[in-house]
Structures are given as structure tokens and as C-alpha cells.
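Marked as duplicate of an earlier ticket. Keeping the data here for the record.
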Amino acid sequence: MESNVQSPPKKNGFLGPYDPTLFWSTLILVSVITLWGILAPDNFSKSMTASQGWISVNFGWFFMITVSIFIVFLAWVAMSRYGTIPLGQDGDSPDFAFTSWVAMLFSCGIGIGFIFWGVAEPLYHYISPPYLAKGATPGAAPVAMQISLLHWGIHGWACYAVAGLAIAYSTYRLKMPLSISNSLYGLLGEKVNGFWGKLVDFLAAFATIAGIATSLGMGLMSIKFGINHVFGAELGTTGLVVVMLFLIVGYTISAVSGLDKGIKILSNVNMILAFLVLMFFLFMGPTRFLLNLMVDSVGQYFSNLVSMSFWTDPMAQASEGKWLGWWTIFYWCWWIAWGPFVGGFVARISKGRTIREFIFGVVLVPLVITIVWFNVVGGSALHAEMNGTLEMYKAISADAGSGIFTLLTQYPLGSLVSFVVFFNLIIFLITSADSASFFVGMIISGGELEPSTPIKLIFGFLIGSITVVLLITGGLKALQTASIVAALPFAFVMLGMMVSTILMLKKEK
């Protein structure tokens, strides 16, 4: 089965092949937002916060339902007769070994989030838990862990899988150029090359840039603290800009080197370092407590999965309560904003895998890693806080990027492991950002599987620029706000991708 859709008309010159409409519209919008943040930071911050509040209060229910629908859809597809269909032509074999595939999708899909939130989030929920639990009590600890697993488990990876499945199927099964708009072929048909197709690709590029800027900003906060903790140097605004420039150089070099070299190698190194850090915490920390917590949190997570998935806290939302907006709704928006980028990137590396293998690999393998990481690293932080060994919550309240470095101060060899974490942090940032600039390049170049170097350089620089602006103008809240604002329009696109996939699959014999 093959579509009749061809690549859209593209210019070819210094920038290589590219779609001029998408290139200039995306470049202008991101540049205007960046300049707005530089020239009028207070106005920029207030406008973004107001937009975030309005979206959270009025569309919180929509995000909760949408992400849950994604899970049901993926479960149905994986277990149906369509699960055996390859993402490619019959007989195609995967381009990458399973371990490299998992390493790349994990480094691209999580990036800095595990290091930043792995310590911080369980502590936040332990002190201020939802569900009417009393904070800073033994009963708050399991609530903190199940909420952390909710935010980083099945729901988030389902967003990636929905986008990735639609893109991979249209690209490798129907032999269409790799783009977000072509994933809507089942819904739009030949119209994907018209106005609506370009609008979808534009929204995807913008959502990708906003989503990765959120993660890069969080990573920059951790790097700032890490440089102070490891090297004793205090970074101001100028220092942050300099560090970001070094990171831009690093991830653009990696992106330019291609998938088989830079991104693949760094992703594998990433996973090895993260595994070593994980084992350090497990065996040097309160091992028995962590293993018990892991078993307990898995039970709590699956027992309450349905109720947590549909909990909208209507009484608090009626009075514009903040918890759900700054946590669960933020996360669903963040995952959706990352949906086109991670979905597109995972689609790019998934040729030859069956639909069932793709869904299980993208959703369930990361879930297992999430359960282990948050219970070991986050559980170690909870143990230190509950036993008074370290004032962990005080540390992250003062500096959200301090979590894992502060936790390591209580361990023998903690200083040495801090170097490893710092190095791991930088590689996570580079692999996430190079994957993003690579993917935006694919969109802008009209579906080229290897976008040109100038395109990747331009958008790599823009991603770094908007990250610095968001961080300087409003810190963590500004970064969260960017994801929420960008995710609303793309949530409707992802629902369309799901419907399109169903329609395309029904044409399979």
C-alpha cells in the first residue's frame, strides 16, 4: 500500500532543500518571542502566566481526557490484528539494535527530566500532597511516589507513541516524506500538502521548540548549581549565556554528525552513566527501604491509575486552584508539546519494527525504567528528608536544580559521583537538544531524513536562545508556561493523528 502524496515544493540553495513557508514562519515567530522576552521581560512573563492560567482552568478537563484516550487507543491497536503490521514494507528489518533503539528514544524522550525531577518531585509531593493527604507524614510518602509515577509513566509515553506511530506508519508503510502533516493522511488525504498540512507542521515545529526549551532550561538550572557545587564557581546571567553557547555548539555538532554517530553514541553513553548512578544510590543508600518502597509504589500506582487519570479536582479548579495546573496538567501539556519531536524522532529510528513492538517498546520499557529510577533516586531523597539526614526540601525550595547534588553530599564518594552526574547532565541536554534540532530540521526541509547542516545550525541556535530568555525572564514557572501554551493547539492535532491512524489501518488487507 502506498500513497500518492509527494514532497511539497522545496527551494534548494545554501540552506539545502527546505520549505520556505515553514522556514520563514517558524523563524519569525520564534525570533519575535525571543525578542519580546529580551526587550520587555516583565510584560512577556505576565502575558505567558496569564495564558497558562486561562488554559489550565478552562482546558484542564480536556487534557485529562485526551491523554487517557491515547492510552485506550494504543492498547487496542497493540492487541488487535494490526499489531503484527511492520512499520515499513513486509520483510524490512530494524535499522538499530534494540538496546540502541531504547537508549535513543529514552535520551530523546526524557533527557534532563529524570535528573531534575527524580529528586525534586517526590519531595514536593511529600510536603504538599494532593488527594487531601497530610503533608510531611508517613502517609504522604506513598502518595508522593504514585503521583511521580503517574506524571512520568504510561500517560506521558502514550503521547509519544501516538505521534510516533502515526508518523512512522505514513512514512515507512505508505512511503511518504517524514512529516507531521503526512501523519494526517488518513484524515486529510491529498490535502496534507495544502494549507492545513503546513499549519500542522508549523504548530509541530513551534511545539517542539517550546517543549525542548522547557527541558533545556531545567537542565541549565541544574548545571548552574552543579558548576557551583562541583567547581565552586557562581554563575550569573552572563555565565548562563556562556554555558548555553557551549551547549549549543555541542548539540549542533552532534546533530550535524547524524544519527549513526553523534546521537546514537551519546545516547548509549547516557544510559550507561545513568545506570551507574542508579546502582550507586541503590547499593550505597538505604537498599531495603528503597526495594520495599518500589514494590509498594508499583501497587499504589496501578491500583489508583484510573482514578488518578480522571482526577480534575473540580472544587479547587472552580476557585482556580493551582496544584493541578502546575503539576498534572503541566505534565500532560509538556508531554504533548514534546509529542511531535519525540514522536517524529522515534518514528525516524523505528523502521522495520512491528506496531505491537513499537507500542510496547515506547510505552512499557520506559515505564519500567521510570519505576526503578524514581523509587531509587527519589526514594533516597525521601528517606533523607524523613529521617532528618538532609534538609532536602529546603535545598530544592532554594534552588530547584540542586536536588541530586545535595543528595550526594551524604554518601561516601559523593563528590566523585557528582562529577559523573554533572557529565551525565550535559550529555542528556546535548542528546535532547540535538534530537530536537534534527527533527525541526526534518520538518522545515519538507521531510528530508537527513536535513542540511545550515538548517540544523539555525534552529539549534534559536532553541538555545529562547531557552535563555525563558529562564532569565521567569525561571521555572516561565518554562512550564511555555509548554502549556504551545500544547493546546497541538493536542487537537494529536487527536487527529489518532483518528488518521485508525482510518489508515482499516485499509490494510
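See parent ticket for discussion. The chain has one domain: 20-505.
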